Amino acid sequence: MIVLRNETAIVMGAILFALLAIGVLLLFLGLRARARAAIVSSDNRRLEAMLRTSTALAMVVRGDGKVEMSAGLADWFGLPAPPRSLVEMSAGDAGLTTDDAAMLAHDVAVAQRSGRAFDRTMRPQGSARSLSLRGARAPAEFGNGVFVWVHDATDTRGEIERLREGSARMREAYDALTGLIEAAPLPMWYRGADLRLTMVNSAYVAAVEGRDATDVVTRGLELVEGSDRGGPIAGATTARGHGRPTEQVLPATIGGSRRTLRIIDVPLPTGGVAGFAVDIEELEQARNGAKRFAEAQRGMLDRLSAGVVQFGGDRTLEFYNQPFRRMFAMRAEWLVDRPEFDRVLERMRESNRLPEVRDFPGWKAERRDWFVGADGATEENWHLPGGTHLRVVAQSLPDGGLLIIFEDRTEQVQLASARDTLLRVRTATFDNLFEALGVFAADGRLQLWNNRFRALWGVEEEFLSTHPRVDAFAERVASKLATPARSGLISDLVRSATGERQQRGGRVELADGRHFEFAAVPLPDGNALFTLLDITDSRRAEYALRERANALEAADKVKTQFVANMSYELKTPLTSISGFAEMLHGGYAGKLPEQATSYTEAILDSVERLGLLIDDVLDLTRGDEGAQIERGDVDLAAVTRIAAGAVQPAIKRHKIDFAVEVARSVGRVQGDQRRLREVIEHLLRHALAALPQGGRILLHADGNATRARIIVSDDGPGLDADSIARAFDRFAEPHLQPGGERALGLGLPLARQFVEAHGGTINLVSELGQGTLVTVELPRR
C-alpha cells in the first residue's frame, strides 16, 4: 500500500513537471508569436498608411471572379460599398457603365490566361473622376488572380485636355495670323538671322512684281531702293541692334508710280526681323493740304474782328491775330518770342485787361485746365475794368494745344440791357394802358392781351390762355355787343390786317350802352394789333358840346354883329373929337394957354388909342376873315423902322429909353406889310403899357437864310404865371395897369393872329421884377 502510494506520487510529480514544462514552452512560444504579431501589425499599419496616401489604390480579382478592394476605392468608383465581383461594379446609376464593366472583365480574363498587362481609362457614372486602370497577373500567393491598380487621373487628364485645347488654339491662331498676313493689303516680310528675306506675303510679291513668294525670296527682291546705310537692310540692322522697332520714310516705285512708304522693322526673339510697309503718299498729300489750309485759316483769322490766339502742346504761343494784340495792348516784339500761356495771362493782368479776381494764381490754374478739357469748348464772359465785356471761347486741340477766341460784346451787352429795359417798360405799359389791346398772329390765334382787354369782354383767363382763333373769340364775345350779328366784324378786321396788311377801324356799341372806338393795325412781324378805346364819355360830351357850340355860334354871330355896328357908330363921334382937338391944338380958336395945350395933347393921345382899340376890336370880331393877308415882298427892316416911328410920340411922352437894332440879316419876307407893321406896333405898345417913366424898351431885328426874327424886350415889372398863360387869350378879362395903358390887352392876341397867318411863331418869356421878352419868327417863304 505504501509502495503504491509512492508510485502514484512519483507519477503525479512527473505529470506536474511535464505540464510545467509544456506551460513554459507555450509561454515562450506565445511571447515570440506576440512579438512577431507586433511586427506584422506595425508593418500592416505602415502599409495601410502608405496605401491611404498613395495616388493609386489596388484591387484583387481572384481566379474565381471574387473582387477585393477597399472602401476608398469603392468610393472612387461611385459605389456605396465594396463589390464582391466584377458584375457588381456596375450597379444601375452607380459604378461603371455596363460597357466599361464588360471591357474590364474581358481585360482581366485576358490577363489571367496570357499574363498580358492592360491599361484602360474609365469614368464612373455620375462622377467627375477620370480613373486610369492598370492590371497585371497577381503573385502566386493570390492564386490565378489579377492585381488592378487604379489611379485618379482627373487632374492629369484635365491638364492634358487643356494642353491639347491650347495647342489647337495656338495652331488656329497661327493659321489665322498666317492668313491675315497673306491677305493683308500691306507688304509684309520676315528676315532671318542673316537679314535675308525668308518669307513675304502676296502684297509684297505684287509690289515688287514677282511671280510668287518663292521667286521673290530666291531673287532677294527688295521693296525700296537704298544702300546699306539708308535702305531696308539698314533699318533692319538698327532695329535688331537696339532691340526695338524702327521707322523709316523711303520712296518706292510701285505699279509705275512713285510712292512714299513708311517702313517699320520689328526685331523678334528668334534673331530675325519682321517688317511691313504703309503707303503714306495720300497722307503726305493730306498733310501738305492741311498745312496750306492752316495757313489760309490763319490768314482768315487775322482778318476777323475778334481776337484769336493759339497755343501749342508745350503751352507756348503759336499764333495770334492783330485784333488780339490791339485788344490786350501787347507789343508784337514780345509776342514773337512765343511766351508761355501763364506769361501771357500775367501780361494781360499787367495791362488791366483781365477780370478782377482775389486769387489770381488759383484763377490762372483753372484756365490752365483748358488745355486738357475733354468736354468740348469752354465759354466764359469776362467783365473788364472800364465796362468792357468779352466773350471768351476756349477750345482744346487734338495735339494738346489750345485755341482761344475773344469777342468784344460790350456794344451787344449794352444793347441787350437797353432792349430788356425797353421790353419791361413796354410790358408794363401794355398791361396798364387805358386801351384794350389784343395781338392776333398771322394764323388768327390770339397771342397777347392786356388786363383791359380781358375785363372789357368779360372772358376768363383760362379761355384766353388757350390762344383761341379769332372766329372762336368773336363767337364767344358776340353776346357783349349791342348787335351780336356784328361780331363777325372782328374776324374781318383781323384778317384784313394780317392778310391784306390794311388798317381798318370804326366804332361799336356794347350791350351795356358803352361806346368804343376800335382799330385793327398790321404789325411789322405779320401779326395784327386790335385796339378798343372807351369813348362813352367823349361821345356824351360830344353831343353836349355840339349843342353848346350851336348855341355859342348863334350868340357869337349876334355879338360880332353888335360889336361891328358899335365900332362903326363910335368912329363917327371919335372923328369929330379928333378933328376939333387938332383944330384947338393948331390954334384955330386962338392961342391956348400952356395947360390947355397939354390937355389937347392928352385928348389927341386918347383919341388915337381909342381909334386903335376900335380897329383892334374890329379885327378880333372878324376872326379868320380879319387875319387874311396879302402876300408880297416886304422889306422887314423898313417896316421895323416905320413901326418904331409910329410909337415914337408916345415913347417921348412917357420918357422911355427906346433902342432900335436892325441887323442887315433881317432881309426880306413874303407877307402883308401892313399886318407886319401892326404886329411890331402891338408888341411895342404892349411893352410901353407896362413901363413906368424912365423904363427901357429894346427892338431888335435879325435873321438867317430861312427865317427872320423880331425881338421886343422891356425891363418892366414882368408878368406872373397866370398872366403869361392868358397873355394871348383874346377873351381874357381886362387887366388894367397903373395909368390904364393896357386897356383890354388886345395887342398880343392880334399879334399872334397875324404872325400865325404868316406861318410864323410868337413866344413870350417873362419873370416878375425882371421884365418881359417877346420873340417873333417869320419864314422867308
Automatic annotation (TrEMBL):
Under the heading SUPFAM superfamilies, the entry gives: ATPase domain of HSP90 chaperone/DNA topoisomerase II/histidine kinase (SSF55874), Homodimeric domain of signal transducing histidine kinase (SSF47384), PYP-like sensor domain (PAS domain) (SSF55785)
Alphabetic keyword roster: Kinase, Phosphoprotein, Transferase, Two-component regulatory system
Q: Where does the Histidine kinase domain start and stop, copy by copy?
A: 565-781
Protein's UniProt name: histidine kinase
Return the broad EC class.
transferase
Q: Which Pfam families match?
A: HATPase_c (PF02518), HisKA (PF00512), PAS_7 (PF12860)
Q: Which PROSITE patterns match?
A: HIS_KIN
E.C. number(s) listed in UniProt: 2.7.13.3
Q: Which SMART domains match?
A: HATPase_c (SM00387), HisKA (SM00388)
Q: Does the keyword Glycosyltransferase apply?
A: no
Q: Which reaction does it catalyse?
A: ATP + protein L-histidine = ADP + protein N-phospho-L-histidine
